């Protein structure tokens, strides 16, 4: 009897582990972007008036050069404990985009503290991954659950392609 209970428990643990590993995560390679040799010289404040409030952070981000989707620059800054905000700068023309998902997003956490890379992206990919809870358009909107959110940058917007719930302990 003891052996069969142990066997059932072991099989259950293996199947839970296998199903967690079976989750297919989108890859950066699956959403390629051609890297352009463009470099924004300045923020376009005329077409991006909200950018004036974040002039220092956006200007610093431009100095770092293109880091996302071939010709964009992801700029980010802290907005409190476990909170990050950000914007996208088009290096071609200095225009600033304000995706709601980067508006005060909640950084994901583990038993050891916050995740190391709450917003992951690559220069040669249109995929952006948020680990935590994405921001929202309005403060009155409900918070989204914590997890892994996979977005593709398309037509100057982040479009959700996959959500993986945070594992419960």
Low-confidence stretches: 4-20
Query: Secondary-structure element sequence?
Result: HHEEEEEEEEEE
What proportion of the residues is helical, as a percent range?
10-25%
How many structural domains can be distinguished in the coordinates? 1
Tell me the fraction of residues in β-strands, as a range.
Answer: 25-35%
Described by strand count, sense and barrel closure, the largest sheet is: 8 strands, antiparallel
**Global Rg:** 20 Å
Structure class: alpha+beta
Q: Describe it for me?
A:
The radius of gyration is 20 Å and the shape is globular. The model is unreliable at 4-20 (pLDDT under 50). The protein has one domain. It is 18% helix and 30% strand. Strands 1, 2, 3, 4, 7, 8, 9 and 10 form an eight-stranded antiparallel beta sheet that branches. A two-stranded antiparallel sheet has the order 5-6. The chain is built from two helices and ten strands, in the order H-H-E-E-E-E-E-E-E-E-E-E. It is an alpha+beta fold and 169 residues long.
């Amino acid at each position: 009897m003891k052996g069969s209970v142990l066997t059932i428990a072991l099989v259950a643990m293996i199947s839970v582990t296998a199903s967690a590993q079976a989750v297919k995560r989108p890859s950066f390679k699956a959403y390629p972007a051609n890297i352009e040799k463009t470099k924004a010289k300045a923020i376009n404040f005329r077409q991006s008036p909200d950018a004036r409030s974040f002039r220092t952070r956006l200007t610093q981000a431009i100095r770092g050069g293109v880091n996302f989707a071939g010709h964009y620059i992801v700029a980010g800054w802290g907005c409190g404990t476990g909170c990050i905000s950000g914007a996208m700068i088009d290096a071609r023309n200095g225009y600033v985009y304000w995706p709601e998902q980067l508006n005060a997003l909640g950084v994901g956490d583990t038993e050891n503290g916050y995740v190391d890379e709450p917003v992951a992206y690559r220069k040669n990919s249109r995929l952006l991954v948020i680990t935590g809870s994405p921001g929202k358009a309005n403060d009155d909107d409900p918070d989204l659950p914590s997890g892994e959110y996979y977005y593709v940058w398309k037509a100057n917007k982040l479009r959700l392609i996959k959500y993986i719930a945070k594992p419960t302990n």
